[in-house]
Write a structure and sequence with these properties.
42% of the residues lie in helices and 19% in strands. With 341 residues, the chain is an alpha/beta fold. It folds into 2 domains: 149 residues, 2-Layer Sandwich (Nucleotidyltransferase, domain 5), CATH 3.30.420; 166 residues, ATPase, nucleotide binding domain (Nucleotidyltransferase, domain 5, 2-Layer Sandwich). Helix 9 links the parallel strand 9 and strand 10. The longest helix has 29 residues. It starts with a strand and ends in a 19-residue tail after the last helix.
Length: 341
């Protein structure tokens, strides 16, 4: 099967081509093209939905053409189209969804609706030539991004159980808001990660909200407020800024790891999957891998490559394969408020 994936849930415009075998437990990536309007949003300190959607209208056809060219296939070779239908920005989603529906109609090909959050999970099922490990069920997935922080139990490809998520700010959102408090450029996550390398993560004792709660929920608004109190009405030195970045990042990472390991133990999982833009954070990857190896013997950790952590169409194509539900273009609509389960 050859799948064209389309992703336009936020400010990226992406198209990808993947192939699968009949009984494949992973997909092979042929191409993955991403165009972004990030430079425009950096100037305004955040994403302006109308600007993102207008840029995506410009990018969508060239991006699809480039994905086909890099995969060395013709559009007629596509077997099905997988497209993100939500959650996301409604204007952005419509660009991808309406393009996918048009292609489905004109080519006579089936279309698959994909939840963006499932896409982040299925980035782990894209073949990694450097790894021979195989994902086994049951598994727990931590999806951690700008808009979402969720823990999900995966019993099999057709059986997902949402365990918990953020009650307020998602982890990535907290990174960006703290970045604004520190006058850092948008997006702040990579900047805070880089500055943290020079800082003392023990310098500030920031709270770890809900880290000891009996549930699998997260809350990072209190942590953001604690940083606000620390920086309010004073000018920070460079050393203070890097120490705040390191201490703040540590509080986020500690909380994510504790909750994930707790879920893995409770459900006796064989695999732990990371996904989402924050999963590209090197400190998070190193720390969670170390903690799992030390505390969960026999449990394997899977983390997508950095380019597959951020929004991309390859993960949407992969999710479309493993959750294949053949639909007509008439049955597909954008839903910006769609939930995980």
């Amino acid at each position: 099967m050859i799948i064209l994936g389309i992703e336009t849930s936020c400010d990226e415009t992406s198209a990808a081509i993947v192939t699968t075998g009949k009984n494949s437990q992973e997909v092979t990536l042929l191409s993955n093209v991403v165009a972004t309007s990030l430079s425009l949003h950096t100037k305004t300190g955040g994403i302006i939905p109308e600007v993102a959607a207008r840029e995506q209208v410009k990018y969508i056809i060239p991006v699809i053409d480039e994905a086909l060219k890099k995969a060395s296939i013709d559009i007629s070779d596509i077997d099905t189209i997988a497209v993100t239908t939500g959650p996301g920005l409604i204007g952005s989603l419509l660009v991808g969804v309406e393009t996918a529906k048009t292609l489905s109609f004109t080519l006579g090909k089936p279309i698959v609706s994909v939840n963006h959050l499932y896409g982040h999970i299925y980035a782990n099922f894209i073949k990694d030539p450097l790894s021979k490990d195989v994902i086994e069920f049951p598994a727990v997935s931590l999806v951690v991004s700008g808009g979402h922080t969720d823990l999900v139990l995966i019993k099999n490809h057709k059986n997902f159980v949402w365990l918990g998520g953020t009650r307020d700010d998602a982890a990535g959102e907290a990174f960006d808001k703290v970045g604004r408090l520190l006058n850092l450029p948008y997006p702040a996550g990579p900047v805070i990660e880089k500055l943290s390398q020079k800082g003392d993560s023990q310098k500030y004792k920031f709270p770890h909200p809900l880290i000891d709660s009996d549930d699998f929920d997260f809350s990072f608004s209190g942590l953001k407020t604690a940083v606000l109190r620390e920086v309010l009405d004073r000018k920070l030195s460079k050393s203070e800024t890097v120490d705040i970045c390191a201490s703040f990042q540590k509080a986020i990472i500690d909380t994510l790891i504790v909750k994930t390991i707790k879920a893995a133990r409770k459900y006796n999982v064989k695999s732990i999957l990371l996904g989402g833009g924050v999963a590209a954070n090197q400190k998070l990857k190193e720390s969670i891998t170390l903690q799992i190896n030390d505390n969960l013997s026999g449990t394997k950790i899977f983390i997508p490559t950095k380019n597959l952590c951020t929004d991309n169409a390859a993960m949407i194509a992969a999710a479309g394969f493993f959750n294949y539900k053949k639909s007509s273009w008439r049955d597909i609509d954008a839903n910006p408020e769609s939930y995980f389960i």
